[in-house]
Amino acid sequence: MPELPEVQHAADSLGIQIAGARIATVERLDWPRMVETPAPEEFIVRLAGREIRGWGRRAKWILLELDGGWTLALHLRMSGSLTVHPADTEPDRHTHLVLRLTDGRQIFFHDTRKFGRARLLDAAGLAMLNDAHGDEPLSEAFTVERLAGLLRGRQRAIKPLLLDQSLIAGIGNIYADEALWCARIHPLHPAAELSTEAIADLHAGIRAVLRQALANGGSTLRDYRNSYGARGTNQDHFHAYDREGQPCPRCGTMIVKTVVAQRGTHYCPACQRR
Ligand SMILES: [Zn+2]
Fold first, then answer.
1. CB-based burial of residue 115 (10 Å sphere; 0-12 exposed, 13-18 middle, 19+ buried)?
2. Which of 44, 159, 209, 229 is most exposed, with the fewest beta carbons within 10 Å of its own?
């Protein structure tokens, strides 16, 4: 699933192509469950004629700022991608939402597994989406002290806490494993028992792995493409994630894979002791 770096690239590569354009019509919506709010009929009516004023990202949501105070929020989930096409390109059968722009171009929301979602939000709806998510880990407000405060008193293992979008937004399985490797923290370590030094290392690790992934265009394991259709290259730079049985880049010990909170979890048993 795309995480913060991939969603940021998807948002930027989409926004730069369509900012200032106007949506003429929703040309295809053949998987109505994709639209979480409002009702699909209303979604179609309200999107028609809207200008795309800007774009952004919140957690793993791509946000298209529209005129009239509306925001089109799009979530790629497992296999979604958003791409921009000339007027005459035919969408394939996995393209479940097509927005036709007044200049003739089309935006395709392609999603083989159909977990992708769309919401058309007014200001209150956008505020609710914001409130449902925790800190943006690359924001200035996300300091070492802030992270320490988020983890204080929590006896849960650190890895599932890192995946909890209501605490910290945008980190998924890849960057949780990578950040813990960077900080030399075992994924099952109780969050409340991390030392001040370990929390500082984790904070630095979270930021470092996200920034590296941003610099590499995100990670493409299977489906992820940015909105130009390009793959990321950060998967070539993993330290622990997806490297079971390969040597730890720091100490040479074999990376092991286990399951933590139902998620495949990769770590170095020498560097990341419990
Ligand atoms: Zn190691």
1. middle
2. 229
